[in-house]
Specification:
InterPro entries: Gfo/Idh/MocA-like_OxRdtase_N, Gfo/Idh/MocA_oxidrdct_glycsds, Gfo/Idh/MocA_OxRdtase_bact_C, NAD(P)-bd_dom_sf. This is Gfo/Idh/MocA family oxidoreductase. Pfam families: GFO_IDH_MocA, GFO_IDH_MocA_C2. The chain folds into two domains: 178 residues, NAD(P)-binding Rossmann-like Domain (Rossmann fold, 3-Layer(aba) Sandwich), CATH 3.40.50; 231 residues, Dihydrodipicolinate Reductase, domain 2. Helix 8 crosses helix 11. The chain is α/β, with parallel strands linked by helices and 490 residues long. It has 14 helices and 19 strands.
């Protein structure tokens, strides 16, 4: 099926016209009754996918009850399996062209592109009144998260971030047990992952191989600064590169920090700091540690919320084993976990918030009232449900942008801590204005540009080179990116 709309009558126009002719003009259209974008629960959504070669294809598969009407991907070879799954869907490489051609026939979009194009594709869709399911991390930068949060309020569309564990039973039990005082008042938290399971700490490739005929490289670059094509960037390892991804923290922080952030309703941290293996100008480090400092807050249900230190670990780094845990017992699962230490005990969960338990009470878990509403379908279908409800009566999807936007700010600001670690100090954060307040105008950081070595008589000789960057200007760029000409978020 080609991507030209031509003179065909749109689905909505057709339905509206035929209904009026058959029933008479005294019938009030359902979109008037329910508000803009309203669909009766019995109706199916017309969904478009943007970035369908990987997780996008998996997300669409969870929405099999709906109509998949359009598929967009800059790499048609990588997206071929999705194209095969939906042979009647129109195919595009440029999501903007898709929205222009099929805007009236699309109710909602599922976006699973590389991180750096999340915000622009989501914003353009939301401004057209399309409901948006956006993969994690929600955005590449803090400012983009704030922008989408506010845009969701303005447009009233149904939204969801793709951190599927947020809809799970484990995340809710984790929160309910903590809020019920089962571990006392929280005093510290730890979250960790085994990622990256892809190469990081990389230098920019020097080779410039030809661009595959199936890939639109300029569209892949999108709002990022242009660079020549190399297979080290796509279709999968884009996560490693600062210009395209957010490293292991961005990838898994939205899954592993989420149970803690949700349970304690943490809001903005007051400060943060980071350390890592060698960090360079091009890609995220192999392993890192980030500490967030959250201020004291008012009590929540049965617990006090004193100042809290939350530590993130990746690349194989782990927190110390807590007191009382059985020898040989894994903390979380093989992919990672989260832990909150309280004044009366310690709670641990696995990746995606699964299988929570309190140390020493594994065989006697708390029996309390379930006060947090449960998601009775999948994470994806929870969003589909929200899309079909009128805004005035909608129960928002579990990880709607009103929640996931502020949360994602916290996740991606961890990369600020890592990239600015050469300042060698705790960075004070003004959450309202999205800025670090204790960087002087003339402070600088030294960052590795290359670390090549040669072996001479069995002895490696390194030629490490650095660049010096104004720290305040760098922080401002990391918080709010400059976009390449032709791309904007306003």
């Amino acid at each position: 099926m080609d991507n030209k709309k031509g003179n065909k009558v749109s689905r909505r126009n057709f339905i509206g016209t035929t209904a009026t002719v058959a029933a008479g003009i005294t019938i009030v259209p359902r979109h008037v009754l329910g508000g803009i974008g309203y669909k009766a629960p019995s109706d199916t959504l017309n969904i478009a996918g943007i970035g369908v070669g990987g997780m996008g294809r998996a997300n669409l598969r969870e929405m099999a009850s709906e109509n998949i009407v359009a598929l967009c991907d800059v790499d048609w070879k990588y997206a071929q399996r999705a194209f095969n799954n939906y042979p009647k869907a129109n195919k595009y490489k440029d999501y903007r062209k898709m929205l222009e051609d099929m805007g009236e026939d699309i109710d909602a979009v599922v976006i699973a592109t590389p991180d750096h194009t999340h915000a622009v594709s989501a914003a353009d869709s939301m401004k057209m009144g399309k409901h948006v399911y956006l993969q994690k991390p929600l955005t590449h930068s803090i400012y983009e998260s704030r922008y989408l949060t506010e845009l969701a309020k303005e447009t009233g569309v149904a939204t969801q971030m793709g951190n599927q564990g947020h809809s799970g039973e484990g995340t809710r039990l984790f929160a309910e047990w903590i809020r019920n005082g089962e571990i006392g008042d929280p005093v510290e938290a730890h979250c960790w992952t085994n990622r990256p399971i892809w190469p990081q700490g990389l230098e920019r490739p020097e080779e410039e191989p030809p661009v595959p005929s199936t890939l639109d490289w300029d569209l892949f670059i999108g709002p990022a600064e242009y660079r020549p094509y190399h297979p080290a960037y796509t279709p999968w390892n884009w996560r490693a590169w600062w210009d395209f991804g957010t490293g292991a923290l961005g990838d898994m922080g939205c899954h592993l920090i989420d149970p803690v952030y949700f349970a304690l309703d943490l809001g903005h941290p007051a400060a943060f700091e980071g350390s890592s293996t060698q960090v360079n100008t091009e890609s995220a480090p192999v392993a890192e540690k980030v500490i967030y400092y959250f201020p004291e807050q008012i009590p929540l249900e049965k617990i006090k919320r004193p100042e809290l230190k939350l530590t993130w670990y990746d690349g194989g780094l782990m927190p110390e084993r807590p007191e009382g845990i059985k020898p040989g017992k894994i903390m979380g699962d093989g992919g990672g976990g989260a832990m909150v230490v309280g004044t009366k005990g310690t709670i641990i969960c696995s990746t995606y918030g699964r299988d929570p338990y309190i140390i020493g009470r594994e065989d006697n878990p708390p029996q309390i009232n379930k006060t947090i509403p449960r998601v009775k379908t999948s994470h994806e279908m929870d969003w589909v449900r929200a899309c079909k409800e009128p805004k005035a009566k909608r129960v928002e999807a579990s990880s709607h942008f009103g929640y996931s936007g502020p949360f994602n700010e916290v996740v991606v600001m961890g990369n600020l801590a890592v990239r600015l670690q050469d300042l060698k100090k705790k960075l004070i954060w003004d959450g309202k204005d999205m800025k670090i307040t204790n960087i002087g105008d003339n402070e600088e950081i030294k960052v590795v540009t290359t670390n090549k070595f040669t072996v001479i008589n069995g002895d490696p000789k390194f030629n490490t080179q650095y660049t010096t960057i104004n720290a305040k200007e760098a922080a401002e760029e990391y918080i709010k990116h400059s976009y390449r000409k032709g791309w904007q978020l306003t």
